[in-house]
# Entry
Amino acid sequence: MTKMSKASDNRRPAKGGEFERFSLVFRIQHIGLFVGVIILIVTGLPLKYPEAALSEYFFRLIGGIAVSGIVHRVGASLLIAVGVFHMCYIAFTREGRLQFRHLFPRIKDVTDVFANLKYFFGFSKNGARFGRFSYLEKFDYWAVYWGMVIMIGTGLMLWFAGKVIALLPKFWIDVAREAHSDEALLATLAIIIWHFYNVHFNPEHFPMNTVWLNGKLSEDEMKRHHPLEHEELTGEEAEEEQ
# Structure
């Protein structure tokens, strides 16, 4: 029998019940993040391509480029608030520190990549077995983390360009504008192509994975997607496909 983590005992349900995947605090952060990001994407892309016909229609609909800029800053403020809250969450709460430790990259993530490659190409009967977070989920998290650093940093430079120019040469504003614009496009493509498919649009969950709303996974989902965590929480070893 596998030793159960004392930090996770309160997440163990009755046999056959649902497992708590994400707490309410974690889900609220996620909702704040994606609402802010959606606002930024919807208002930011027309600002990046203002001469496009769709952008011109959007500006007429919303009331002009100036209004789009104001709404864009509202989305930016929400993103900053979520970022600050999340830093406090992982620094000052027990749950946050535990989640962060689980999300930290490890050697096992590298071996899991190769285990899955062997499975995908038919050289192994079983793929990688994941714990709390897979390497795909960790990539999602750290991509957002790094993206927020770039987007918030460069966004603040553009927001307060007058004060920045008083301290730094103008080319820093040009660099910030290009970095902000290109990272925004990269983030948009990553969210639509990578995150939405892996989490919502794949055949298992289409049209939506409801874990972001209720924070729950069934026991079957835990056994299939997070077998090592299931073993940790229940002490039961999951059977591998033969």
